[in-house]
Amino acid sequence: MTDDIRLCRTFQTAPAAVPKDDSAKYLVSALEAEGFQAPDWLVPDMEDGTAPNMKAEGLENTIEKVPEYDFPGEIWPRVEWSYEDEEYCEKGRNQIDRLVSEIGDEIDGVVVPKVGRLEDVERAAEVVAEAEAEHGYEDGSIGLSIIIETGRARSDLREISKFGEDSRLTALVFGPVDYAAELGGRDLGDGMPRWDGLLEALSNEASAAGLLSIGGPFDDLFKERAGLTYYNADDYADQVEHEAQLGLDGSWSLYPKQTVQANTVHMPTPEELERDVSKIERFNEAKREGTGAVTLDGQMVDEATFKNFRNTVQQVRAIDDIRPAQTEEYYDEELLTRARELELSYN
Amino acid sequence: MTDDIRLCRTFQTAPAAVPKDDSAKYLVSALEAEGFQAPDWLVPDMEDGTAPNMKAEGLENTIEKVPEYDFPGEIWPRVEWSYEDEEYCEKGRNQIDRLVSEIGDEIDGVVVPKVGRLEDVERAAEVVAEAEAEHGYEDGSIGLSIIIETGRARSDLREISKFGEDSRLTALVFGPVDYAAELGGRDLGDGMPRWDGLLEALSNEASAAGLLSIGGPFDDLFKERAGLTYYNADDYADQVEHEAQLGLDGSWSLYPKQTVQANTVHMPTPEELERDVSKIERFNEAKREGTGAVTLDGQMVDEATFKNFRNTVQQVRAIDDIRPAQTEEYYDEELLTRARELELSYN
Amino acid sequence: MTDDIRLCRTFQTAPAAVPKDDSAKYLVSALEAEGFQAPDWLVPDMEDGTAPNMKAEGLENTIEKVPEYDFPGEIWPRVEWSYEDEEYCEKGRNQIDRLVSEIGDEIDGVVVPKVGRLEDVERAAEVVAEAEAEHGYEDGSIGLSIIIETGRARSDLREISKFGEDSRLTALVFGPVDYAAELGGRDLGDGMPRWDGLLEALSNEASAAGLLSIGGPFDDLFKERAGLTYYNADDYADQVEHEAQLGLDGSWSLYPKQTVQANTVHMPTPEELERDVSKIERFNEAKREGTGAVTLDGQMVDEATFKNFRNTVQQVRAIDDIRPAQTEEYYDEELLTRARELELSYN
């Protein structure tokens, strides 16, 4: 990681059209979100989140509404695609062409779902490249993120990621529902598997290739108990914390409350920041005294340990650069100043 | 998955010869099994399940007994092989040649154990192809399934599976005992590892290549407690349920009671079937009313969620096609009729 | 596994120089260790364990002290390296050249950290080959072990291991601290992830390629509770036992007490040895009576099961060959004699 971290703590999909009087209601609501409810990435969804008979309207809503707002994060519409159905690829090609043509300056890239093996990802990248060239955008200016939700994409994850090192590929996002359906996974009472092997590989391959890795959606939005239906905050937080522990860069949000939680978890806590700022300060002090490998609180600090402390500080600096309102709300002013002024080199 | 699912809920090995007056006792007993005791696949075992000095007799038993029964599932004899010992490969070559020559019409394929890297699997496939051609069978009519039980086969699992896309390869079966011995795994009181990474990869690669994936044998058949020795039903069920959750298609059985359990777990419960039939019925209803993405019981249903419900129904239909006695015993007649008549397309 | 097992139960790093009056204090102390405190491999550490301003002195200490002792295990100095920083590779090249030139007869190889993809490992191997040739050592006489601690090395683990089949590559050692920093893993209160997928792959790929696999360091050396600071024996033992269960050959030690624990865990317990010696004795007895597949204590014994029992005995024989003092202290004399005299072939 360098100081110019690309943030995607939250990958929030919003249906691009819903069967209400105002069909762009959820899209607009996400574009207008403030504070911790504002996602780092907003994904106007023309795929599974929008009903088949509303998809055309979803595309028009996206083209119309996105330019009306000065959204503080990135915009990544999700189009249709399927490695096993040419009809969906053709729809995706048309959606990408319209989006680049009409609002190419407003979007950071497109999200392509249900990709198969490497060849299918290369083909999706080529579709973006063609739209880019056709409408006069600079090569590489429109990004591509993909949903990893097929056995084939998981099988080729390493090869797809290596392709991503030198391409427009930006983020690898997990899609557990389609994935479980492909593999035939079953809920026998304890829920679906977490697919820990896949999550660990996603974090690793993304890291090795300089890509972002994002967890999958959590759709048990509400719980019912003792007569009350309420937002399922606990189970979503558990999932997001598990993803953060494994080094995923962000989490999928379906809902403003989920966005608040994912933004928060993927942000060091004040205690973490205090702890790691303090460790670096004490390490820098010991280094000036020339004692070399230092023991702090019973733990030996070498260059590797040091990098972990530095990650914490760099993530806070990146959030602070882009969303100063969030860091100002979350951290003590004096701590934030120490984090900003800290010397971060090991040698 | 399509409607023509290839069933292998149970991969039951039976020693092809045992040192008893009737050396084919267990083989015949498996061929005669009825109801839930009848495995989907019966594997007459000429490898580790049969003593070295009984293997020749096991081959003769298989050739003699299999044609005498109209076994309702598939027959897959397991022969000898070892990537690291040419002598075993030569034995396997002879066994495959005899089996195809004598009962090629009666068997669905052969199971080859202890394969190494891709090249070794290709060689085993070539041995089957040669026997097929030599004895006048159509290309591809004799299948090949392999036991994944060496570090090399695990290392090449993706490449082996990709080879399987266009070959006679049919099932990937886990062999944990040889595998643990190769890796040097140890039981320090909590048992051997479950090898979760391998199981997840097995499910994924098999799915990506259109192959079947089968779990490994569970050999703690009996428990002793308070003076009584009894069948270890709980621990085997735990293993089979874990495999089903991960999307493995079936489990290994060493014993008729294990076959009952594995057949049952890899079959949706009446509650699962009722739940998923009902969800599809309500989804179809909502779709007719044009509301698109639907919320059922607090969960959003999109095309991906829908596929999971459909898996349940398709598996029941496949069992019902082949073993109507089991589905009639297990499900309410009215529920089974609803499952048979349901419209299963998302759009 | 064959009878000539290469032992590395313990991979003990010792800082090659520390800022004390006697800067070689820890290195000498490890060279002099006796009994269970003596590691199988001693790693004089010129990388992260030694302060930047002490590294030159660490190299001189290693060159001076190692030849003064007749260390009973192997000596593997760790040099500097980084796939992403040419400056560290240049330092590593000079350190390797000096070590081979001055004490090439005293060391078994060098440990290279922070390797990247396969090409970087090949380059490190080439650096060792050049030093070997330059100073007149036979090709392959100086080994190479690497720390797997980057996303790239994990991504290429299979390819790196296959390269290791026919090269000087000897051991794959996990480096969790740098690894977590690369992936951005976070401790949210439950500690860092164990990276189970990586550990399982490490065990598998090492086994498939005939390499050793070694776990990562555990640096929470001390615990504080109720006013007392004490050695954290429990948590280290948990980690080492987990590694042993997965089939890793050894564990990393930072401290003599850790060496005692890792040496012990990676050595079959007297109960395991008694159990497996007894099972092989009873199996051999049954085999002589011709009953073939045998049931012992409710578990069927086939060739695969048998290999697991044999692993136990072979590991004890290997330790006994090299460190008879440890086996004499640990096992009953009569049991050790039985283990030595047992017939270990299945057929």
TrEMBL record, chains A, B, C:
HpcH/HpaI aldolase/citrate lyase domain residues: 35-192
* InterPro entries the UniProt entry points to: Aldolase/citrate-lyase_domain (IPR005000), Citrate_lyase_beta/mcl1/mcl2 (IPR011206), Pyrv/PenolPyrv_kinase-like_dom (IPR015813), Pyrv_kinase-like_dom_sf (IPR040442)
Q: What domain of life?
A: Archaea
Keywords from UniProt, A to Z, are: Lyase, Magnesium, Metal-binding
Q: Which cofactor does it need?
A: Mg(2+)
SUPFAM superfamilies under this entry?
Phosphoenolpyruvate/pyruvate domain (SSF51621)
Which GO biological process annotations does it have?
A: oxaloacetate metabolic process
Molecular function terms from GO: lyase activity; magnesium ion binding
Q: Which NCBIfam families match?
A: malyCoAlyase_Halo
Please report the name of this protein according to its UniProt entry.
Citrate lyase subunit beta
